[in-house]
Amino acid sequence: MSLLTVRNLVIDYPGTRALDGADLDLAQGETLGLVGESGSGKSTLGAAVGRLLPPSARRGEGEVLVAGEPVFDLPAKRLRHLRRRHLGFVFQDPIASLDPTKRVGAQLRLVLGRGGDPAFHLGRVRLADPRVARSYPHQLSGGMAQRVALALAMAGSPELLVADEPTAALDSQVREEVSDVVFALAAEAGTSILWLSHDLPAVARRCDRVAVMYGGRVVERGPAREVLGRPAHPYTAALARSSPAAAAPGVRLAPVPGPPAGARRPAPGCAFAPRCAFAVERCAHERPAPVRVREQDVLCHRAAEPAVRAAQEVGA
Length: 316
What we know:
Blueprint: E1 4-13, E2 16-26, E3 31-35, H1 42-49, E4 58-66, E5 69-70, H2 76-86, E6 87-90, H3 94-97, H4 104-112, H5 118-124, H6 130-133, H7 142-154, E7 160-164, H8 172-189, E8 192-196, H9 200-206, E9 209-214, E10 217-223, H10 224-229, H11 234-241, E11 290-293, E12 296-299, H12 306-315
Helix pairs in contact: 7-8, 11-12
């Protein structure tokens, strides 16, 4: 049984469909990178895992199961138990996720309960200086605050850690150090990771599998080496070509053609069709069913065609 299962999840905000039938699976001990342009639905999907969506969000249909528990159908008490026992969250802005009125040590003691040792958990995230526990969040650097947030998230050894762009606001050296800590702690505890990111090379290095989102759907998923090295969906191939971190020096980047999907209504067909060089008439009005291409599951009418497959591999 999967630790996390998302099936046909539809989430609406006023005037916008954020998730338009998203599907996802994550196994125990697995690391899954969730990638896509801003507005693709990554953060909404990550928040939905713990039912942490804002009050304006409405679930239209679909379900989220964590360890077999239907997240959206649980009463409040059982939901709190599920979050404590199974889930940890690390967000992009660490300062905003910490309580500004409490010292770091006090916040850890609230999570750990009586007898917990904040110094031990801070040491696990490479913050052994005792002054950190006595500090308020605003007295910490961004990298230190993110490690504190990670210590809080991992204090209960959750089965699943949802990390939403946790290193995006950090400089490159600190970003690597924080990422090292995240994945090392997760490996030690046997914690699965759902890693939301724009950094495709980092995802390729660190994650077992990758899921690519566009227009509120997961349009391609499979092993990281295949999805990012030999993409099968036209959007994945275009996204890989446009990644600055993956470009060779002196090589001009090829942006994803056309404007990104913004505020949107439910797409009758493939949401990427207006930007896709391979789109045909049916793409505009017929939703693609998943097809298997090598080791990937792909939402594309033409992904299995030899000519399209060859073009994606050459262009990636």
